[in-house]
Amino acid sequence: MKAQGGKLCMKKVEYAAGFLVILCVVIGGKIFLGSSDLYFRLLIGAGLGYTLSRAYTGFAGSVYRAYKTGSTRLMRTMTLMFLITAFLTAAFLFGSDPASYNLWINPINLGLIIGAFLFGFGMSLSECCATGVLTIFPSALPKAFITLFFFGLGVFLGFPIQRTASWVNDSWFSTEVGLKLAGGVFLPDLFKGDGFGGYLGAILITTLFSGIVVYACYTYEKHRIETNTYTGHPLEIMQEQLKPMNAKTFKLFSAQTYEHIFVKPWTLREGAVGLALLFMFLMGVTKAGWGASTPFGIWVGKLFMLFGMSPESIANFTHMPADTFTLPFFRHGASVQNFGILVGAFIYLLTAGQFVQAFKSGLRMRKKEAAVFALGGICMGLGTRLANGCNVGALYSPIANLSLSGWIFLVFMVAGGILSCKIRGKITE
What Rg value do the Cα atoms of the chain yield, rounded? Predict the structure, then answer.
């Protein structure tokens, strides 16, 4: 009885801490951040982190879960999210000048192919990605810390390649709007005669690509079932079995109500819809897509400065302005947004009363696993520079922004992830 009482008391402390963090974000962010843009990025980041955590979703698991359990539900859900966001983007951009937005129309080149493969390889090794490493920080500290550092190191080492290599920056194929941005293929440019500014054709081809991915997922899952190698993912099974709130027994101030509002996980579909809406909100306010990886390399540069490296020497190495690394952390928009993702993950675990348990369980890690996470992190980081983004900046945002590059990234990311899964199993045995 005492043990149960102690656990209940701890959960209440976590609940209180969670709401305190929310107040700090809402009030403290408004007071201490230097602009409304930074404040918005903090809030949108917190929303992204909360959604990713509560829906137990993320881009990295799409390949690893499928390989390990046979379940392609996460990959199918991610594809649905891509399609939803592409529809919303088309509606958002229709009748406006797309070149006035900072759309992620990434170049199509050798860098995209190699970078996507490297990223997928590292993603499955570390079982997380750029945003994923931030959301797992509260619950898997050693793993997250190692992955984050080596991810950032990979980004930092990749900066000079990204800035100087033509095979990373020059696109094999470009369209009119693509040339005005990063030089890639903006799908509506290919369908200008469809009567809707090319957006109808772009949506139809995006739907076709999405259908191909979903068909491949179902085919693979069917094969795993037929060969008796399908187990399903326990989190996905749990999410689908959760019962909705009973309206007949509803009481505003009750443990049951709190459980449904703050504790009960969201389904993958609910998470996908939430992320899509947050993406469009971000794009509407900032006129840009969602990116996450570049700040990691900047943070490593700042770390090197603490150990005596001058901003000028770092700038010379990276081919980036020195003020990129001297700018205070909370004045850099993308860094604030990433910090918000981390905070959002904390908020969910605390308000759900799961932080202490998750933190303790995540402290256990073998030395061999640490090496795997380090390798995964540096592969991911370097891959982001070659591909001009991670699975957010080179996959989600480009597909959502109707760029052909995102679909190419997906193909080679999956290929790298499959190879990684095969190798990872042998290493960690």
Answer: 22
260-289: average pLDDT: 91
Other Cβ atoms within 10 Å of 225 Cβ, number: 12
Contacts for 324 with CB less than 8 Å, ≥ 6 apart: 298, 301, 315, 318
- pLDDT tens, position by position, 207-254: 999 999 999 999 999 999 999 999 988 888 888 777 776 666 667 777
Taking the C-alpha atoms of residue 286 and residue 41, their distance in angstroms, rounded to an integer, is 9
Give the pLDDT mean for 370-383: 93
The total of structural domains in the chain comes to 1
Evaluate the CA torsion angle 55, 59, 65, 70 in order and state its sign. Answer: positive
User: How many residues does the structure list for the chain?
Assistant: 429
Question: Are the C-beta atoms of residues 49 and 340 closer than 8 Å to each other?
Answer: yes
* Mean pLDDT calculated for residue range 326-340: 94
d(CA 182, CA 163): 13
The reported pLDDT for the residue numbered 33 is 93
Mean pLDDT over all residues of the chain? 90
262, 352 contact by CB (below 8 A): yes
Q: Which long-range contacts (CB under 8 A, 24 or more apart) does 373-376 make?
A: 373/125, 373/126, 373/143, 373/146, 373/147, 373/150, 374/146, 374/147, 374/149, 374/150, 375/122, 375/125, 375/150, 376/121, 376/122, 376/123, 376/124, 376/125, 376/126, 376/127, 376/147, 376/150, 376/420
Q: pTM to 2 decimals?
A: 0.93
State which amino acid sits at residue 405. Answer: S
Domain extent, residue 314, equals 2-428
